[in-house]
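Query form — protein Arginine--tRNA ligase

QUESTION: What is the three-dimensional structure of this chain?
INPUT:
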Amino acid sequence: MDFKQQVVDTLVKVLPEEITEEQITNLIEKPKTSDLGDYAFPTFILAKSLHKAPNMIAEDLVGKIDTTGFEKVVNTGAYINFFLDKKAFSNEVLHEVLTKKNEYGNADDGKGRNVPIDMSSPNIAKPMSMGHLRSTVIGNSIAKIITKLNYQPVKINHLGDWGTQFGKLIVGYKMWGSVEEVEADPINNLLKYYVRFHKEAEDKPELDDEARAWFKKMEDGDKESLALWSWFKELSLKEFQTIYDRLDVHFDHFTGESFYNDKMDAIVDTLEEKGLLKESRGAEIVDLSEYDLSPALIKKTDGATLYITRDLAAAKYRKDTFDFVKSLYVVGSEQSEHFTKLKLVLKKMGYDWADDIIHIPFGLITTGGKKLSTRKGNVILLDNVLNDAVDLAKKQIEEKNPDLKDKDTVAEAVGVGAVVFHDLKNDRRDSFDFNLEEVVRFEGETGPYVQYTNARALSILRKAGTVDYADAKDLAVTDPEAWGTIKLLQDFPNVVERAAKTFEPSVIAKYALKLAKSFNQYYAHSKILADDEGLKARLSLVKSVSIVLQMSLALLGVKAPEEM
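ANSWER: The structure tokens for Arginine--tRNA ligase are given below.
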């Protein structure tokens, strides 16, 4: 039953006809505290037409309302406050969660249509740093969230495997590297060459010219440069995969920038045919001055292609291949102008589906207030952070539960989960400073706190033994301490929908924290395992909380250990 709709239906019968059902629905609020009711309707909108003070209108209307199905309906100032029938509400909510289980909150908004998600996208021959974490886990979580609404995500790792940086790397390798050194420690040594190149190029600008020449050789099919590039790529992918395995992140396509090399000529041809390509200082551009933007640079003076050229080809390929309903790009906020240009060029080319391309920006992870930079060698390696997080988790597990079986597996789930949860609990547009000690705590607004709450709920259920909820007709929980938890359980489908519409995993993470906190308050004040007639209803609440907490964690890409 839709309890908000019950309030709407009740109000429709007493409000003036000119107030539409849609208006009523949009005006209904949820009071900040339960003592003010479960839903509230403000009467200010009626003051002008009824020529009365809002508080008097509220008082008059309460006298006309049929309170059947409600605990009570009262007016508080200008508001009509509805208190739901707690027994009917809790009985219905708990039955629905226990019946639907992991399908609770599912909807068919997407009708099975495809949504490519461009995510993670590390650069070949550079280590995965904390800077890569955000795109990876935000994209992974969005894929899981929209799946609940029956969209079909297509997760694409658009690897940075093409561009002038490979010319720089080849120059660096040929000047300072060796096969033996690279084979011994691929990523760190390739990074060393890259960083050294940038330092030396500050005093020797001719190195940049040499790097551009090597990249042009790659584009022209030179065997030596392509062999080096292929070797760097193979070594990098092996390293990346170990981290993706730890994060439990999987991709449908590893189609990096190089995949579009043979698809860019068609884009350039279309731009020429439509008269959009112009020459500017020897380069070829699309003029965007009508939008107060600098031009989109399609080809450099030496004929080499650019990032936007490959992105145009990628966008067209994804539309042709997946016939997407939306195409998402989980890329940092600093690239916002790039995606604005990308969509404008596609629109100029006559592709109206450009409107379905959505850039999902996110803020930076800083350390000590400073931005991470691979070019300057200022990086925090993601693998090292995960290792340190797991070590911290294991230390706390040893203190709290020294007899726990399979401590290493649990510590991996808690440590890695803590890092992922901490990222996703922040609004994605916000930047944040990373402090590992704050992340891996079992108390406070952390992933381990939510995991521990679920483990506590499962522990209660184990103590209770086998309980058959199927034959329980009455699961009404009358304990007032449980009311907040039950209302949160009922709100889960709305939370999923809101997170999907805003592409905002933090909505799920913040909800999980609220549900965990509410349940722990209930646990602290209630004798759940007391052997009385309300036992099965209370256990059904515990079971429902565990189901929804596990789903919430799963939507964030965080594991839920049964014991901690």
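ADDITIONAL NOTE: Residues 70 and 84 are 5 Å apart (CA to CA).
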